[in-house]
Amino acid sequence: MATLHILSHSPFADSRLASCLRLLGAADGLLLSGDAVYALQPGTANLQALQLMPASVSLYALGEDLTARGLQAPERAQVVDYPGFVELCARYAKVNSWL
Known about the structure:
It is built from 4 helices and 5 strands; from the N terminus they run βαβαβαβαβ. With 99 residues, it is α/β, with parallel strands linked by helices. It has a 5-stranded parallel β-sheet with strand order 4-3-2-1-5. Strand 3 (58-62), helix 3 (63-68) and strand 4 form a beta-alpha-beta unit. InterPro entries: DsrEFH-like (IPR027396), Sulphur_relay_TusB/DsrH (IPR007215).
């Protein structure tokens, strides 16, 4: 059963990103929102870890949060808007928000 994992906290503040990456299933998706988009900063260990995820795991980033933080998504990440966020939640069988 595919799960959409949603992260919104900075990967530099705690270990939620690392914990999430360990639990991802082959058909899961990971959506970065809020301060979690800082994981996409070039040259960071967080971005390297995200780029090493299996190709079958989809990586998404909320476009509004990227723009607000002056970041650009790498090729690996699909940028979504709020309607896209809602569509992702409906597409996956389960949604897990890492609070």
